[in-house]
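Work Package 3 (structural annotation) set out to generate three-dimensional models for the target panel prioritized at the project kickoff. During this period the team completed the workflow that converts sequence records into discrete structure tokens, so that structures can be stored uniformly alongside our sequence database. As a representative example, we reproduce one entry of 440 residues exactly as it appears in the project archive.
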Amino acid sequence: MAGLTKRNGTWHLRMRVPRRYCSVEPRSEIHRSLRTGSEREAQVRLPAAEAAVLAELDARLTMGKSTQSSDVFSAAVALAATRGFAYRKAEDLAIAPLEEILTRLDALKPADTPNMARAVLGGVDTPELMLSELLAEVERICAHDNRFKSDTQMRLWRNPRKRAVANLIAALGGDKPVLSLETAHARRHKAWWQTRIEKEGQKAETAKKDFSNMASMLAHYYDSLDIAEPPQPYLGVTIKDRHAVKTRKLEIPVQWIVEKWFAPGALDGLNDEARDILLISIETGCRQSEIHDLPSNGIVLDADIPHLRIAHEEGDERREVKNTTSVRHVPLVGVALAAARRHPHGFPRYRDKRSYSGLVNAYMRNNDLVPTPKHTVGGTRHAWESRLKSAGIASDDRGEMMGHSVASARNREIYGDEMPLEQKLKLALEVALHVPQHLA
């Protein structure tokens, strides 16, 4: 679209204005100095200059046509940036040093539209998005990030954020514009939680999740507005309970699994899908959701090494796995392989639902199939890593097998290829349990 032309020894961008911008740009051509006398250097600078011109035209078009205050504000921020300025509201500029005001005035050109002047001189009102509207706006902003989430995962993403907003509104005594939030408001949120913790026995961790979710939503919103130095009202706002004991799931001992769970008839009271999800978890160390949410093609039995394919999914069976390190292939051995063969297309009864854990844990407790009431079937994942550890398998290899971030554990970059499935199979076989005939 853009070409080069030389004027007085300096190369310029020369670009015909696309028809869609005619309402905001009366000129048929735009010329922009590339600030070089070298044609080779001009060719290098041309794409960035063209992109900057188009970005400016897009912003001007948005300011002229959009009825969304947030879009207009973002466009004003972008336009101010094309002239090298951070957007500042007119009332802030009114008390700014005279030199800054004059610099901004000098940056305006006779051919500039009124919207450019509004952007450079702070004449666009900041959007009055209310706290009660924040979640819907953040969901729109994060649509691409959340593109793999299933309906259930979106509900689980949405609900804690909805609670955080509702709690903040309750703490403040009513709704407020998002851009008016200050540290004092976040501290009122904290004080509100401290009262609940003291009087109702709520946990500090629950309050910290509120603060984290609010901080994250605000950061996404500020970023969408291209605010140069966004406020951080929740910076340093937290609650600590020095008496709180950090808990983790208890392991299911291997002997218990073999003697109790593998006993004939022990799991007969479970439906076949719930039973086989449990059996797969015993010999893979996978998270429960990684198994019951598998898509219909997630169990690969026709490969040289039968395995589970755990990955982000799109389409009708879309789902998001926990993180990028959880994307992996998991070899199937022992009772897990037998269970997978009984369900080659996965577990539709539990796919994208959250009913499996409650049902199976209740069955295990009611039938004396857990060592203590505090044990849950989630302990199979912890038990599996302990089995790997007892077999002398290195920490890095255990991390890859389980979908943990080895880089985070090492606190440094990881080099080399991912562990091949053949090696994973070898390690899995080292800890595989004997398969009873009735579970084969």
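The chain has three domains: 2-120, 131-224, 254-439.
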